[in-house]
Amino acid sequence: MVRVLLADDEAMVRAGVRAILDRDGAIEVVAEAADGQEAIDAARGVRPDVALLDIQMPGPDGIAVAGRIYRDLPGTAVVMLTTFGEDEFITRALRAGADGFLLKADDPRELLAGVHAVAAGGAYLSPKVAARVVAGLRGLRPAGAGRAVAPLPEGRLTERELDVLSLLGAGLSNAEIGRRLGLVEGTVKAHVSAILGKLGVRNRVEAAISAYEAGLVVRAH
């Protein structure tokens, strides 16, 4: 069962999102919050598998909350669910430690897929958000939008870590990577932790962007 914290300052939005999540028998909403501080307190209290956060909430906004959860609750994955898909919000959310980014206008199936993906140790971007990220990686990033990740440190990643990174960049979860490479999930987690440290990135999404920039993702096909 994937335990979810749902945080949004609009009660009607929370009700609608909860109705979608309740359709999935493997997801349970264990707490709700109407502002940033409530979200932080609830996350500390229930320690959910996934925190589903709106960006614009009273008190600390969703991105600030994501950063607090990232630092204080490493066992909780964070997904931003918002109406705002601008590059600035995407970059800020990923830098804060978000594992996923979804738009409220997305198909409800994307919400369920995103929750399951990050709960399994993967990363998930709305197709529309992913298109913006890929466009940026192709040199189409708007002027002034900074580089979000560090380049690959030459010679520091082992061959196995490069294999893991390429599959991570393709959006695979730890379990899926393990099946592809014949590794137990615990070993994959150890490789992912080493990769994040060597790349100097905060999360799997930033590592995946590094994989795209380095041309590694083709190795996943």
CATH C-level class of the largest domain is Alpha Beta
Helix content: 40-55%
Counting structural domains, the number is 2
- Beta strands, count: 6
Describe the biggest sheet? 6 strands, parallel
Describe the structure in your own words.
The protein is an alpha/beta fold. The chain folds into two domains: 2-138, Response regulator (Rossmann fold, 3-Layer(aba) Sandwich), CATH 3.40.50; 159-220, Arc Repressor Mutant, subunit A (Orthogonal Bundle), CATH 1.10.10.10. It has ten helices and six strands; from the N terminus they run βαβαβαβαβαβααααα. It has helices spanning 11-22, 36-46, 62-72, 87-96, 108-119, 127-140, 159-169, 174-181, 185-199, 204-213; strands at residues 2-7, 27-33, 50-53, 77-82, 100-103, 124-125. It has a six-stranded parallel beta sheet, sandwiched between helices. The longest helix is centred in the C-terminal third of the chain and has 15 residues, at 185-199. Mean pLDDT is 83; it is low at 140-150. Keywords: DNA-binding, Phosphoprotein, Transcription, Transcription regulation. One of its GO terms (molecular function) is DNA binding. Residues 3-119 form the Response regulatory domain. Pfam families: GerE, Response_reg.
